[in-house]
Amino acid sequence: EKGGYDYFMLKEIAEQPKAVADTLLGRIDAAGSLTLDEVRISASELREVDKVVIVACGTAFHAGLIAKYAIEHWTRIPCEVELASEFRYRDPILDQQTLVIAISQSGETMDTLMALRHAREQGARVLAICNTNGSTIPRESDAVLYTHAGPEVAVASTKAFLTQLVACYLVALYLGQVRGTKWGDEIHAVIRDLSQISGEVERVLETMEPVRALARSLAHKNTVLFLGRHVGYPVALEGALKLKELAYMHAEGFAAGELKHGPIALIEDDLPVVVVVPSPRGRSVLHDKIVSNIQEIRARGARTIVIAEEGDEAVVPYADHLIWIPATPTLLQPLVATVPLQVFACELATARGNEVDQPRNLAKSVTVE
Ligand code: F6R
């Protein structure tokens, strides 16, 4: 049932605050520490992990890219992220000390399943992050952390993605907690912020009307580019993927630092470019660099659509369109920055007359390699 919405996708976008809150439920104790006993890998086993490898496809892969920043920062364990479809074909280096994390909404994606089977054959331990109870991927894994997004019907993944991010943060923070790192205080503070984040997602949803209007005004365009840095880079990739699959438009995400190494040649008059700006408080060097990127592309004619933290006055002079998002800790920003991009893609698809819940050529669960 669509619950009064025109499309499942709209309903699922709206359900994100609840999906995020549900995924945290019961996993933070009264003292503000994480309890992930359900992950049946013992603390002593987790202390021995010397490498994390994440395998996933599509949107789940983007969640994995973001997880890498969180895992390496909070745990200092090296982390690789790989497209599941590429993984086993390159003879990856794995052993008992490797923790492989397989992220999958459906739990049935064949590429991801084959990757985790390969990892287990090499002796690695596999933790699944999955939204579907009892599906194949968690059944074949050593342990599972379920995302509690509820059933996702629209082909384009939205609420599952946000809950995959939450689950990834939980794993990263938990690994940091059991291993003890110099970030102990920060880990505690972030757990507190995470428990508030569903309200921030709700606030973003309440301010989406201008994003819809902007999307409708761009319905005749052929190309949209997305730029980001740090965790904003995978957010840019996700924004581009949503636009491809729903609006059937040419959309590409770039790391903003790569602009000058090629992509800036694409900039032409009135080309829409969405830029995800990191917080000016956190890694402020990155913030300033991206503000320069916005200036550079605007000077070459781009129509800049800037997603920035509330109160970030530095971006105002260079933004043709501004989308404000609430302040969050740097690593958590994707939870709020992705939402406008989902709304943008959904509205553009509608404006172009596309079938939002069932984009052409796509299936919800890809059970072939
Ligand atoms: C994009 C999308 C796909 C899936 C990918 C993995 O909106 O839905 O890219 O994310 O096919 O699917 P799961 O998570 O079920 O393994």
Automatic annotation (TrEMBL):
GO biological-process terms attached to the record: carbohydrate metabolic process; fructose 6-phosphate metabolic process; protein N-linked glycosylation; UDP-N-acetylglucosamine metabolic process
CC annotations in GO: cytosol
Annotated ranges, domain SIS: 42-181, 214-359
Reactions it catalyzes: D-fructose 6-phosphate + L-glutamine = D-glucosamine 6-phosphate + L-glutamate
Catalytic residues, chain numbering: K364
Enzyme class: transferase
Organism: Streptomyces regalis
Complexes and interactors: Homodimer.
Name this polypeptide is given: Glutamine--fructose-6-phosphate aminotransferase [isomerizing]
Gene: glmS
GO terms, molecular function: carbohydrate derivative binding; glutamine-fructose-6-phosphate transaminase (isomerizing) activity
Its biological purpose: Catalyzes the first step in hexosamine metabolism, converting fructose-6P into glucosamine-6P using glutamine as a nitrogen source.
Keyword Transferase: yes
EC number: 2.6.1.16
Part of the intact protein present: 247 to 615 of 615
